[in-house]
Amino acid sequence: MKTLTRAFLLLAFVAFLGTTQAQTLKIGHIDSNEIMSIMPEKLVVENQLKDFEAQLETELRAMMTEYQTKITDYQNNLATMSNLIKQSKEKEITDLQTRIQDFQQNADAEFGEKRVELLTPVIDKVKKAIEDVGKENGYTYIIDSATGVLLHVGAGADDVTKLVKTKLNLK
User: Fold this and answer.
1) I want to staple 25 with a disulfide (CB 3.0 to 4.6 A). Which of 33, 140, 150, 151 is the partner?
2) Within its chain, how far is the Cα of 34 from the centroid?
3) Nearest-angstrom CA–CA distance, 133 and 168
4) Over the stretch 148-167, which tens digit does the pLDDT of each residue have?
5) What is the CATH number of domain 26-167?
6) How many other CB atoms are there within 10 angstroms of residue 116's CB atom?
7) What are the sequence ranges of the domains in the chain?
8) Tens digits of residue pLDDT in 39-64
9) What pTM value is reported for the model?
10) Residue 118 CA: distances (Å) to CA of 56, 121, 128
11) Rounded Cα distance, 42 and 112, in Å
12) Distance from C-alpha of 7 to C-alpha of 5, rounded to nearest angstrom
């Protein structure tokens, strides 16, 4: 009986502590998409990425034009080509086709790396502002409602998106 009483008291004490701690939590939420969409730095990054993508597309178009020219030349002159020239032209076309495929794959990978490289400082700036707002306003947690991780926003939770915008001097 004494053990049961001690267990009950211990359980009641733990429950009491849990209730006390839960009352001291301050939880806020933000919408990172809203913040990122108005960041001037993000607009600059988007323009840089558009320029970079245009450079890659220009190179790819040039390769495709060269490929189409070689195909047309091959088809137009096939009847008059010797076997040696025919094999040489086929190898050129196949090699160019491989280079185009490699370029497309490498361009996709390089674009992704460039995107990460350019966006990281912007994301870091927003993260720092969120951390600062959390510390300055006594928030235990700030949850990003834009990521889909948030399942419920209670009436007691504060939307601190405006505070983060203010911290970043955004409207």
Assistant:
1) 140
2) 15
3) 10
4) 555 444 556 778 888 889 99
5) 3.30.910.20
6) 10
7) 26-167
8) 999 999 999 999 999 999 999 999 99
9) 0.69
10) 17, 7, 17
11) 16
12) 5
